[in-house]
Specification:
transport, about 75% helix, two-stranded antiparallel sheet, MFS_dom, about 0% strand, cell membrane, membrane
Length: about 500
């Protein structure tokens, strides 16, 4: 979306002020700024609610009515889950724009958290398809608004050259995964014991706890968190209001006429993510508020965007292909007790909690000697591809041992730690000052595209002929990784001193 009209000189002033305003030597939270603890907490509870709901969502959609589900075709349900996940990350554009132009990151984050809680309540209390639609729309838009702004606020705690930045994002990422660990355990057990709607209700309670904790700490956030970076002039508000109204009308027409429907929603979401990314990059690149160095950094971000989308197309299959695989092919018997399939989605967060701190300490220790962001991206893609290739020996008619899937999900974790927190960090480092939060939204657009593709790809999985699926997806990821590694020197040059 177009930037506000302001001078480059005015935009350079907040950067200098923000840098000087950061407490020098603030190491009160495990060697990091104190406010990292507050953002760690709100994100943890939001992820508890989000992943708790996500852990049982696919099953709710394709289980039969006798099992408490909606009896949606399994392949269609997987595509819809992917489209929903893509929509969450696509909505970060709206949350970022509202923060940068109207309300500031802190207010948008708080309002988004309220919307998320309302969505979980809708899933818990409203039966059938209407409850599903209302709940997913509210949670999707709310999560998108919260994600970009929480990340941007973490980035505001560090100076551009602060070597603790990647480590700080790794600690923040650990909070995300504590919530991601507990959420599916709680909702999965409640779903198998008391039904889907009780599980969704637990997600609402989790978000309510997060809201209370965050409310108590809001006033302690720095002034920068409340600032609107590029205020929208009053004379332009009517124009933008009409633009948003027109967008809503177009969406309504597409849905009402059936041009966009359940069967093509996933592909439509993918096209929307690609189109939004292209438009966003063009507008940022052409903005008079962006300096020459910043333009080169925006160009450097493009291959990282592509690599990130490829990574998430594989990683997010935890909620599509692997969810179905866990329900139907995994041996979940533990000493005579069958583990809920949703609990499989807590395996990755366990590993993240264990190893995120290790990786944070590693990056801190290496300092300026650590690998560049493009090489970290290449490593993440490579490991992700190898993880899918590791399914090949398990192909066949028999049940997959739980430990085998645990090992594969450990590879998922290593890949994630090389790419995801680094992606959050590098998006804040490469961001032009006039588009700070919106650059974070661009990173989430890559997640949107990848998540949508994860749903589409899961529909191609054939349990009767698994090898082409594993070989094709894993092989493409390995090729992408090699290409990213080869291009890393050129990308580093464009990054203008940012690692």
């Amino acid at each position: 979306m177009p930037a506000v009209s302001a001078s480059i000189e005015k935009m350079s002033t907040p950067q200098t002020t923000a840098e000087s305003a950061k407490p020098a030597g603030d190491t009160s939270f495990f060697g990091h700024p104190k406010m990292l603890a507050s953002l760690f907490s709100v994100e943890m509870w939001e992820r508890f609610s989000f992943y708790g709901m996500q852990g049982i969502l696919l099953y709710y959609m394709y289980f039969t009515a006798e099992q408490g589900g909606l009896s949606i075709d399994q392949g269609l349900a997987a595509g819809l889950v992917g489209a929903y996940g893509g929509g969450v990350y696509l909505s970060t554009i709206l949350g970022a724009w509202l923060a940068d132009r109207l309300f500031g990151s802190e207010k948008v984050l708080f309002g988004s958290a309220i919307m998320i809680m309302a969505g979980h309540i809708a899933l818990a209390l409203l039966p059938g398809i209407p409850g599903l639609i209302a709940g997913l729309v509210l949670v999707g838009i709310g999560s998108g608004g919260l994600k970009a702004n929480a990340t941007a606020l973490v980035g505001s705690l560090y100076g551009e050259k602060d070597e603790r930045r990647d480590a700080g994002f790794s600690i923040f990422y650990m909070g995300i995964n504590i919530g991601g660990l507990i959420g599916p355990l709680v909702t999965g057990w409640l779903q198998t014991s008391y039904g889907f709607h009780v599980g969704f209700g637990a997600a609402a309670v989790g978000m309510a706890i997060g809201l209370v904790i965050y409310s108590l700490g809001r006033k302690r956030l720095p002034e920068e968190a409340h600032r609107v970076p590029n205020p929208l002039p009053a004379k332009d508000r009517t124009k933008y209001g009409l633009i948003f109204l027109a967008i809503l009308v177009v969406i309504g027409v597409l849905l009402g006429t059936g041009l966009v429907n359940a069967n093509n929603l996933a592909s439509s979401m993918a096209y929307a993510a690609i189109g939004a990314a292209v438009i966003y990059l063009f507008l940022i690149f052409r903005s008079p508020l962006v300096t020459g160095v910043e333009r080169k950094r925006v160009i450097a971000f493009i291959p990282l965007f592509i690599a990130s989308a490829g990574f998430w197309a594989l990683f997010q299959q935890q909620f599509t292909f692997i969810a179905v695989y866990s329900q139907e092919k995994l041996d979940r018997n533990l000493f005579g007790w069958e583990m809920p399939a949703a609990w499989v989605q807590s395996i990755n967060p366990v590993f993240i909690i264990i190893f995120a701190g290790v990786m944070a300490a590693l990056w801190t220790k290496l300092g300026s000697k650590q690998p560049s962001s493009p090489l970290k991206f290449a490593a993440g893609l490579l490991i992700m591809g190898l993880a899918f290739l590791a399914f090949i020996p398990l192909a066949g008619d028999g049940k997959t041992p739980l430990l085998a899937l645990v090992g594969i999900l450990f590879m998922f974790t290593l890949a994630e730690l090389f790419l995801s927190p680094i992606g959050l960090s590098v998006s804040t480092k490469l961001a032009p000052q006039a588009f700070h939060t919106q650059m974070v939204a661009l990173f989430f657009l890559s997640v949107s595209l990848g998540t949508t593709l994860a749903g589409i790809l899961a529909g191609l999985y054939n349990p009767e002929d698994e090898l082409p699926y594993f070989l094709g997806i894993g092989g493409v990821a390995v090729v992408l990784a090699v290409g990213m590694a080869a291009a890393s020197p050129a990308i580093k040059k464009l990054m203008g001193g940012v690692r």
